[in-house]
Design brief:
This protein has 258 residues and is of the alpha/beta class. The protein is 45% helix and 16% strand. The strands form two sheets. Strands 1-2-3-5-7-10 form a six-stranded mixed sheet, sandwiched between helices. It is globular. The two termini are 25 Å apart. Bound molecules: octanoyl-coenzyme A. Its EC number is 4.2.1.17. GO terms for molecular function: enoyl-CoA hydratase activity.
């Protein structure tokens, strides 16, 4: 497929999606979000891919949903058409791990897209924010729910209610970001983390992703039970035998299911 708004490539066992609407700071329109979904479908189906990175440009990961595209929406356009929400959850449903590699602005829907990913690796130039309030709307792709889970109520309220931006250092300190690296090293760092993950047993990677996500879905006891069940099932994998045998034999494991 020829994409209009993204670039799609593979780097070893990593699928790389680069948001590519530079003139609009990668503002997320309907076509772009559809294209992300299509690219993820391809990477999920590809046995040669073990992890995915989504990145933007030096100036912007994404400056939000496309304001021009929704400026004249009526309530019926938004609600009945499910227009801008229908394709946004695809990142969340991806079973392979997805890393957001963020430089520059990650605002509104851009911040929400990054938070839908499993991990954010940020350049020291990154700026996160939920400034929708300035436009007379509120976050609509999970910002009011994922941000407090990541950074706590105090900072989430601060960002959503004042519209101020949070820089990379503050975002890392608050727990939104896994790592902050100099801007010129950021993509390499994200690709290298993704390649590391893609080298492990894919079923185990997926079990870990599913289990960690459970921590945000229900009670601690349910989460612990889920983890234990999945943990027990890992002993059915050849890769568990291989991983442990390799440790005992002091060699590198050769995982079969990647
Ligand atoms: N939508 C459309 N175009 C945009 C957007 C955007 N979100 N952000 C920037 N652009 C465009 C600008 O209009 C400008 O275009 P042009 O050159 O044609 O005038 C170009 O990108 C460059 O932008 P600026 O000249 O403004 O660049 P600056 O460096 O001066 O400023 C900022 C950068 C601070 C990022 C500024 O552009 C800005 O404030 N942008 C808007 C940020 C924002 O409000 N984001 C939230 C949008 S609403 C949202 O995301 C709701 C999410 C709900 C999801 C719902 C789905 C379920």
């Amino acid at each position: 497929m020829n994409y209009e708004n993204i670039l799609v490539e593979t780097r070893g066992r990593v699928g790389l999606i680069t948001l590519n609407r530079p003139k609009a700071l990668n503002a997320l329109n309907d076509t772009l979000v559809d294209e992300i979904g299509h690219a993820l479908d391809g990477f999920e189906a590809d046995e040669g891919i073990g992890a995915i990175v989504i990145t933007g440009s030096e100036k912007a990961f994404a400056a939000g949903a496309d304001i021009g595209a929704m400026a004249n929406f009526s309530y019926m356009d938004a609600y009945k058409g499910d227009y801008i929400t229908r394709n946004w959850e695809r990142v969340k449903t991806c079973r392979k791990p997805v890393i957001a590699a963020v430089a520059g602005f990650a605002l509104g829907g851009g911040c929400e897209l990054a938070m839908m990913c499993d991990m954010i690796i940020a350049a020291d130039t990154a700026k996160f924010g939920q400034p929708e309030i300035k436009l007379g709307i509120l976050p609509g792709a999970g910002g009011t729910q994922r941000l407090p889970r990541a950074v706590g109520k105090a900072k989430a309220m601060d960002l959503c209610l004042t519209a101020r931006f949070m820089d990379a250092t503050e975002a890392e300190r608050a727990g939104l970001v896994a790592r902050v690296v100099p801007a010129d090293k950021m993509l390499d760092e994200a690709l290298s983390a993704a390649e590391t993950i893609a080298g492990y047993s894919l079923p185990v990677v997926m079990m870990i992703k599913e289990s960690v996500n459970r921590a945000f879905e229900g009670s601690l006891n349910e989460g612990l039970l889920f983890e234990r069940r999945v943990f027990h099932s890992a002993f059915a994998l050849d890769d568990q035998k291989e991983g442990m045998a390799a440790f005992v034999e002091k060699r590198k494991p050769e995982f079969k299911h990647r």
